[in-house]
Amino acid sequence: MNGTGFFTYQPADSPIHALSPVTKLVCGAALVLVTFALPGWGGLLVTLGLAVLSAFVGGVGRSVVRTAATVLAPLAVGLVVLHGLFTPAGRVPLATLGPLTVWQGGLVLGLRTLVILATFVVVALTFVATTHPKRLTTALIERGVPENVSYVFLASLQLVPDLQARARRILDAQQSRGLDVSGGLTDRFRAFVALASPLLIGALVSAQTRSLALEARGFSGQGPRTHLYQVSEPPAERLLQAFAVVGVLVTAGWRVLA
Amino acid sequence: MNFNDFEHGVDPYMSETTAEGGSVLDGIRGEFTTQTWVLIPIGVAISVVAAFFVNALRLPIYLDALGTLLIAVLVGPWAAALTGLFVNLVEGVLVNPTFIPYTPLQVAFGLAAGYMANRGWFRTYGRIVGVGLVVAFLSIALGAPITVTVFGGVTGTGSDAVTGFFLATGSELWGAVIGQTIVVEPVDKVITAVLAALIAKRVPERYRPSTAAPVLDKAGRLSERFRSLRG
Amino acid sequence: MTTSADIRFEGVTFRYKSGVDSNDSDDSDSSSSAGSEADSARPALIDVDCQVEAGTFVGITGPSDAGKSTFCRCLSGFVPHFFDGDLDGSVSIAGTDVPESSIGELGETVGYVFEDPFDQLTGAATTVLEEVAFGLERIGTPREDIEPRARECLDRVGIEALADRDPGTLSGGQLQRLAIASVLALDPGILVLDEPTSQLDPAGTEAVFDLAESMHEAGYTICLVSQDLHRLAPRADRLLVLGDGRLRYDDDPRTVLTAIEEASEANESNGSVTIPGTLRIGRALRERGLFDGDLPLTVAELEVGTDIEALRSTNARRASSGEATTPAASAPSNSAAAVPPESESGTSGSNTPESAVSEANPPNSDPSDSASPPASASSDDPPLIDVENASHTYASGTDALADVSLSMDGGCVAILGHNGAGKTTLAKQLNGLLTPTSGTVRIAGRDTSEAPVARLAREVGLCFQNPDDQLFRPTVESELRFGPERLGYDEARVDELVEEALAVSGLDAVRDTDTYDLGRAQRGRVAIASVLAMDTPAVVLDEPTGGQDSSGVSIVGDIVDDCRSAGRLVVLVTHDVGFAAEHADRLVVLADGAVIADGPPRAVFDSDRAAIERAGVTIPVATRAASVLGLGEDVLSVGELLSRLDTS
After folding, report:
1. pLDDT at B218
2. Whole-number pLDDT of residue B21
3. So what's the pLDDT on residue C322?
4. Peptide bond into C80 cis (omega under 30)
5. Which residue of C31, C82, C121, C482 to mutate against B (max B Cβ within 10 Å)?
6. What number is the ipTM of this complex?
7. What's the CA gap between C638 and C283, in Å, rounded?
């Protein structure tokens, strides 16, 4: 986390950072898909372990685990409570508290789902923390993603903290004009319009300037484009990607047959 | 500003290709001017930042489709679909990866709302409620399967209490999740659609993209009449 | 540079497409009476003829809605490609008609720098280097050339050391230099800068002007729009003055400004542009036979051209003969020589009232003193705003305020200092948006940490710098109603307050106009008026003169004076020291979160001048001129300086 409260790229010199973004994307997705397909607990814990290990190898383990815990906590509560209390799979009661019964099967099911989600969250956060967005889009453009689509992704990532700061200023400004943020529900919905309208209008005013500036700098030019950075992808990484894809196919095939 | 002029003046290639393309492709190309590429990130960011105001005002809803619906009104279905695609991806990257599996929902919101906006569904409050209900329907139809298969039926929000209620009263998980979304989604999405219309309505004429669909224009004409009465 | 271009305007008339684009510009220009039918029908440019040789530094100035931005947009092709309308006549660069080329193609001939430092960046670059590389990538520069060229451009604007920084962490001045580097990457021969410094602090402004000057020396053609003639005139080869869409003056800056200065003799308030004070001073001295040569554009030129010995002896003679003071003089000083400011405390002048507020409660004992603002409370009541040993440390660990104590009850207090010195943090303490992390702030006796902002908004109206952060209602009038309605005043009272605020802010003619159809200057005044209409005992204005042209500044000055005489406390947060000197009774200078000077303007300027200049306070031209001329260290305005010359 940085000063803006958002989870972002953390520069470091690690083997995970050095991987091509595409390799990380393919392997990460493969790991998550395999996790979803695995039946027993052993495999699940191995994949979660791999995910956590890669976070620590990437030097971002602590922040990834901390953020993952915050993200997963409400889901964990939901899963344990809903399934533990209301999924009587196997009909084995663990405990009875007045009218409520905690079912073992439901609890196990809830925890299983939690481990799968944890793997996904840790993989995703590790990817974000170790992949520079510009390197990601450069690599994706090399793989055929349109240039402007990658612009949208980068610009959105940058604009969120920017608009968040603007949103704070607007909240300050409107409160200074007597806007009450603690009135009745209808008043608060009206207040939302008083806050969100300047946010949108201000963004549109900026958009006009930005469109002109981008246009003047060749945004819609039709000629060939080049790139400041090049993302290298050694043959070993290509092999790793192929291995990941095969891994997913094998797991899926095995599940279908089994 | 005039977007069509911008597009033709700047990009002569575009008019050549559109002459040959089919009508759907025409529509898509017409939507994607430089201005549109700049507006999409705004829609994405507003969806994410809306949560800041929702928290500050302690509103009991999400409003996470706000940016997508705004782009649907201001630009069109395809730009809104792309906005929707990036809303959950960007939110997934910056805030919480568990948004990522829900990406198809926002794409569908954008397509549906943009299509309806182009056909005048943002002109009156009654119709806007219709847009909200359609979006809510998509949210239920596409969201419930994701919630059940990926998340075991939970969302990690207050809505889980509603799911719990349905489960406690004897529903199966699928039924409980659908029941929960039927309670929560229409309210959230109708309010989102109304707020999107009110906010889009506030956009001054000169900053309104020429692609913008008509919004609450009946009401607008009414106030125009008042203005002329006074002046 | 790819082109060494001659710019040629021949009989250029441009009218924005009727309706939405009737105004000249989104940001820098505004229609002074938009909404009135006659005005929107006027073309933004009328029959402009002008020819600029390659390598010229052209300064462009004029009031809001004069056509300055439209002129610039004609060069970059934004007119007519983006802004639709009827273009007559021809605009050409190096013999090629501008409308023949697309905006993208023109980007390699004309580099355009906008007013807002951040909005013109791609918004998609994670480092400064990537930002500059963007244009090079888009035109297909070979990969191996991109980085060296981008670094060379950064080096040229003097920010090579920032290449790896996130653009979001740069200051306004650094961002503007980055914007210049980004357009330089495409190797244009012409740089167009449309009000590039109106959102910058003095240090950033100076840096951008210096950069424009050095680009000019490197052979670029520069077209720079600015209201800041103090900085523009000495650097430009040519000065174009636009007014109502017409090219009013086009000559070297000294000739133009001398002509305007002499024409303004008859009608002094005809403030279409703010003539540097040195010209007026130089002319006054010349009339007295004390100045020789062309009228001075800078204080240095004034010093060189003035016969200071003769001036001193005149002064000495006058002082000894005791005929110095003229009761009608606009300044309260009683002698030309430096007067200890303490002795002036309590005396009153007609438009530069002195120390109505002092560190303690204002004495306020002289009811006959019309200029001294009546305090709303009797002396037993707690002061309206009482800041006591307030410190503020942000969650990020930044110390923004350090043990600040200020008591304010009436009059006009200006808070000065660098960006980052804690001005805005202090302003937010004044209505409870922030509460001090240690110490207390009391508003009308109420501790801000115990009252909600919505309650404190009844006592203190705070208007932020950027109007776009607050305006959202469809018309000016409805925008003004928002605040008083929120405070729960009844309908009749809201009507009355809105009428008053419209009148004092010069917005009556645009009351039914969409606020965003107004230019930045008028939008700024709408934001101020929307806070005035809340009828709070105290008003805090953050950079109220930002983006205002000459007449806008004088309207804001009237607003401040009006509030003072109505007994309201006005707190100005500003970089505009000249404005503060003219309108404030008290200056508070912040540096690194601490108060380093606090007192009447005369006393502050007469104290450790080097220290307050280090704190980002640019001493006003009149004050500096008076210093070098030996007319005292405590002069606040040109009028006052002239009055010290008078009587002979």
Report:
1. 64
2. 44
3. 52
4. yes
5. C82
6. 0.88
7. 12
Whether the Cβ atoms of residue C232 and residue C226 lie closer than 8 Å to each other = yes
**What CATH number did the domain enclosing C55 receive?**
3.40.50.300
Q: What is the DSSP letter of C647?
A: -
Q: What is the pLDDT of residues C411-420, one digit of tens each?
A: 999 999 988 8
Residue range C174-207, pLDDT digits in tens: 999 999 999 999 989 999 999 999 888 888 999 9
Domain that holds residue A51: 15-139+231-253
Percent of all residues in chain B with a pLDDT value above 90, rounded to a whole number: 51
Whether residue B20 is contained in a domain is answered as no
Question: B88 touching A, CB under 8 A?
Answer: no
Q: Is A232 in the C-facing interface, judged by CB distances under 8 Å?
A: no
Q: Identity (one letter) of the amino acid at C490? A: D
Distance CA B65, CA B83 (A): 10
With respect to residue A167, please indicate whether it lies within any of the assigned structural domains: yes
- The conformation of residue C569, written as its DSSP 8-state character, comes to E
Q: Which residue of C has its CA nearest to A170?
A: C469
pLDDT band with cut points at 50, 70 and 90 for residue C318:
low
Mean pLDDT computed over every residue of chain C: 84
Instruction: Flag whether pLDDT at C435 surpasses 70.
Output: yes
Interface of A with C in 150-179 (CB under 8 A): 151, 154-155, 158-159, 161-162, 166, 169-170, 172-179
Residue numbers in chain A where pLDDT is lower than 70: 1-4, 89-90
Kind plus residue range of the DSSP H or E element containing C385: strand C385-393
B113 within a domain of the structure (yes/no) = yes
Amino acid found at A13: D
Taking CB atoms and an 8 Å cutoff, what residues of chain B touch C103?
Answer: 9-10
Nearest to C411 by CA among C302, C498, C538: C538
DSSP B205: G
Q: A8 vs chain C: nearest CA distance in angstroms?
A: 12
How far is Cα A30 from Cα C164, in angstroms, rounded to an integer?
34
**Please, which residues bridge with residue C90 across strands?**
C10
Phi, psi of A157 (to 5 degrees): -60, -40
| Shared-domain flag, residues A128 and A208 | no
Is residue A225 one of the residues assigned to a domain?
no
Tell me, yes or no, if B205 comes closer than 8 A to chain C by beta carbon: yes
pLDDT > 70: percent of chain C:
84
| Domain of C542, in residue numbers | 410-424+453-620
Cα A245 from Cα A243, distance rounded (Å): 5
